[in-house]
Specification:
Length: 479
């Protein structure tokens, strides 16, 4: 069993792509499928299998609405549609590898959506076809995608629905299933992929994986995008119009790092403890599901910001201003807007076990005066808010402050401090014996500007005195 799963993690280590004869199969209205390139025989897919018959996979659709949220109603093209209504938008939710629709995280997501919108929610269960070997599960995603597309096209042709009213939400292999479904529905409204599976899909041809052409709007949340050889179950590859990378898109806070994931994989899959495997080894991978469900509830802004990479974002090198024609921001998750920021968007969250996951994104700018040439040292800020007061480090003896310069910092806060009413700026000159003589023991900060990036509210603060001496602090008030 361990070897079967390991194929999906180590396939890129193959010295050569095996010369395996391609095969094809056709399943009536579902179409024809192949193991030839690009679906097989490539570096990314050295060993490919044909999908099982649709009847063996047994894709099942369960409908929930506000009036039937506690009743699981199976629907299909050949039976009753239950309480489904053409007058409501429809959300399909699709699980991934080794998962099933009776898990609490999917029930939580379904309920959260029904709490905020009057929609049809359809949970798609394909748990008979998503097990070992992983290569077979990846092949079966094509059938499940075709099944969803057939159902949506049926709603359109026989019940007057519009393609734009459909939104497919998929996790892991379910994210790739969403792409296969969208490719078969002309003008599908939206796809949301929650950490779409990377192994056997990353860097493949767009016909094999999710890509922006699969729906009018495709948004992606990446949470476990480490290289497959390091057990990254997702991917860092951009696959949508708007790709969000919370905490960089890879190991999430408080989740096992690479070595921990390997150990948990051996312990849980070796004993076939699938639930333990899902919770531990898949901690970062599942974080996308938890984050998305929390975005539905609308408790946190979850604003993502455009930047070249996460390191630049985390070090404050990217603007957190959202105004302007390029609309450089967008909300991650359920409330993502097609007409707002696109491309790569970064944000921070708390750990996946620290509900709610809000991080308050602040950008603080200190402007230096012209009285002294340069200085260096530790600068801390005490932010006095209407809810609480917190002290943060602005610079830890890493920056040379120069005459007339401005310095920006990204300051993430895990708690809501309310509106900042005052700021105490504390300065302590560098204690480095060699370079200390080069820097001034007194300094002038003429203005502090605080941008609450989540609300896009900016405010300036001015000092109560012109200079600050090493070891002292100066209070700044709104100006």
């Amino acid at each position: 069993m361990i070897f079967s799963l390991s194929i999906c993690f180590v396939y890129l280590a193959s010295v050569a792509v095996p010369n395996i004869r391609a095969a094809d199969v056709c399943y009536g209205e579902h179409g024809c499928f192949t193991t030839s390139k690009p679906f097989g025989g490539t570096l990314q897919r050295p060993f490919a299998l044909l999908p099982d018959r649709p009847g063996s996979i047994g894709t099942t659709f369960y409908l929930y609405t506000r009036s039937t949220r506690k009743t699981r109603t199976e629907i299909s093209r050949y039976t009753s549609l239950g309480d489904w209504s053409v007058n409501r938008p429809t959300k399909f939710i699709v699980h991934g590898f080794l998962d099933a629709m009776n898990k609490q995280w999917w029930i939580d997501m379904k309920n959260a959506i029904l709490d905020v919108e009057d929609v049809n929610v359809i949970l798609v269960d394909w748990s008979k076809g998503n097990g070992f070997p992983y290569e077979k599960a990846t092949a079966n995603t094509q059938i499940v995608g075709a099944e969803i597309a057939l159902f949506i096209n049926y709603f359109i042709s026989d019940h007057g629905a519009r393609a734009t009213d459909f939104h497919v939400i998929g996790h892991s292999l379910g994210g790739q299933i969403s792409g296969y479904a969208g490719a078969r529905v002309n003008g599908l409204g939206r796809i949301t992929a929650l950490d779409p599976a990377g192994p056997y899909f990353e860097n493949t041809d767009p016909s094999v994986r999710l890509d922006p052409s699969d729906a009018l709007f495709v948004d992606v949340i990446h949470t476990d995008g480490a290289h497959n050889l390091l057990l990254g179950l997702g991917t860092l590859q951009r696959m949508g119009h708007a790709d969000f990378y919370p905490n960089g898109g890879y190991d999430q806070p408080n989740c096992p790092k690479t070595s921990g994931k390997i150990l948990n994989l051996i312990l849980h899959v070796g004993t076939m403890n699938i639930d333990g495997f899902m919770i531990t080894s898949l901690c970062s991978h599942m974080a996308a599901v938890y984050f998305f469900t929390d975005t539905v509830r609308n408790q946190c802004p979850y604003l993502g910001f455009t930047c070249t990479n996460f390191d630049d974002f985390n070090s404050g090198k990217c603007s957190l201003q959202c105004n302007g024609a390029d609309r450089q921001c967008n909300r991650m998750g359920y409330w993502t807007a097609p007409n707002s920021g696109r491309g790569d968007l970064y944000l921070k969250t708390q750990a996946a076990d620290a509900f709610p996951y809000c991080i308050n994104h602040f950008q603080i700018t200190l402007q230096s005066g012209a009285d002294y040439a340069q200085t260096r040292g530790i600068v801390t800020l005490t932010l006095i808010g209407t809810i609480q007061t917190i002290t943060v480090t602005f610079d830890n003896d890493q920056t040379t402050f120069k005459r007339g310069s401005t310095e920006d910092r990204f300051i993430p806060l895990t708690t809501d401090i309310g509106e900042i009413t005052k700021i105490d700026v504390d300065f302590k000159k560098t204690g480095n014996i060699i370079s200390s003589s080069w820097y001034s023991s007194t300094w002038s900060f003429t203005r502090a500007t605080v941008l609450n990036a989540d609300t896009q509210q900016s405010r300036s603060y001015c000092p109560s005195q012109a200079v600050i001496t090493s070891g002292a602090k100066v209070r700044f008030a709104p100006c």
